[in-house]
């Protein structure tokens, strides 16, 4: 396979460029073409694995007027016009990490219902690898490894997602840039698919399947 799915330090360094316009220009020319390719590939992958049509949504950061984005992503949801109102998968970058997650964010009208479903099936998280992480804030790079927080903080985070309006819930895999840039295209795609396979049962509980 060509190296079109291989990440480089140049991709991550986009988030170190000063200035909104300059960073957005680099994001558009360097990172978004990869998100476009990943969007096409994994919308098909998730559609075939979940039995409903999924659509890719590349972050546009359109509301920003001053602060340049600190991260960016392609999201996958079953709604053609957007992803924020539903549980969704994401592949994205911070300056130090690549992430592959499934998330419910605070804009989702059914957030409390979905968080409660996860609380009722919390044993499902025991099947996830210890190096997976979770968080209650999709706008922060701070995450909790499952092997550290599974016993106490996981339930607390889900309860806050259920009860607190501005709380989110995400779970998945964060991979350091040092590790990601060493992966070939094939290795990265294999890792992404393995991660999605682990996360699909969580998604199914979120949507009540």
Summarize the structure.
The chain contains 7 helices and 7 strands, in the order ααββββαββααβαα.
3D architecture notes:
The structure is a single chain. This protein is an alpha+beta fold and 209 residues long. Helices cover 42% and strands 18% of the residues. It has 7 helices and 7 strands, in the order ααββββαββααβαα. It has helices at 9-13, 20-50, 111-120, 146-149, 153-163, 177-180, 185-206; strands at 55-58, 72-77, 88-93, 97-104, 133-135, 144-145, 169-176. A 7-stranded antiparallel β-sheet has the order 1-2-3-4-7-5-6. β3 (88-93) and β4 (97-104) form a beta hairpin. The longest helix has 31 residues, at 20-50. It is globular and about 45 Å long. The model has no long low-confidence stretch (mean pLDDT 95).
Strand content: 15-25%
What's the main sheet like? 7 strands, antiparallel
Number of helical runs? Answer: 7
> What is the arithmetic mean of pLDDT?
95
Q: Give the overall shape.
A: globular
| Separation of the first and last Cα atoms | 36 Å
Low-pLDDT stretches are none
Helical fraction equals 40-55%
**What oligomeric state best describes the polypeptide chains here?**
single chain
Structural class: alpha+beta
The total beta strand count reads: 7
| Largest sheet, spatial ordering of strands | 1-2-3-4-7-5-6
Give the C-alpha Rg.
Answer: 16 Å
Give the H and E element order: HHEEEEHEEHHEHH
How are the SSEs ordered, and which strands pair?
Blueprint: H1 9-13, H2 20-50, E1 55-58, E2 72-77, E3 88-93, E4 97-104, H3 111-120, E5 133-135, E6 144-145, H4 146-149, H5 153-163, E7 169-176, H6 177-180, H7 185-206
């Amino acid at each position: 396979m060509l190296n079109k799915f291989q990440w480089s330090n140049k991709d991550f360094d986009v988030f170190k460029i000063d200035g909104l316009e300059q960073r957005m220009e680099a994001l558009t020319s360097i990172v978004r073409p990869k998100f476009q390719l990943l969007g096409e590939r994994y919308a098909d992958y998730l559609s075939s694995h979940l039995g409903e049509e999924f659509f890719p949504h590349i972050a546009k950061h359109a509301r920003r007027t001053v602060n340049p984005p600190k991260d960016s992503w392609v999201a996958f949801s079953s709604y053609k016009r957007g992803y924020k109102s539903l549980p969704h998968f994401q592949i994205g970058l911070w300056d130090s990490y690549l992430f592959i997650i499934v998330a419910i964010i605070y804009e989702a009208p059914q957030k409390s219902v979905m968080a409660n479903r996860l609380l009722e099936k919390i044993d499902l998280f025991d099947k996830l690898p210890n190096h997976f992480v979770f968080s209650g804030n999709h706008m922060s790079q701070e995450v909790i490894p499952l092997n550290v927080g599974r016993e106490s903080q996981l339930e607390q985070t889900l309860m806050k997602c259920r009860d607190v309006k501005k709380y989110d819930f995400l779970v998945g895999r964060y991979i350091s840039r040092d590790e990601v840039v060493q992966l070939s295209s094939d290795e990265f795609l294999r890792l992404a698919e393995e991660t999605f396979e682990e996360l699909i049962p969580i998604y199914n509980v979120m949507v009540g399947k």
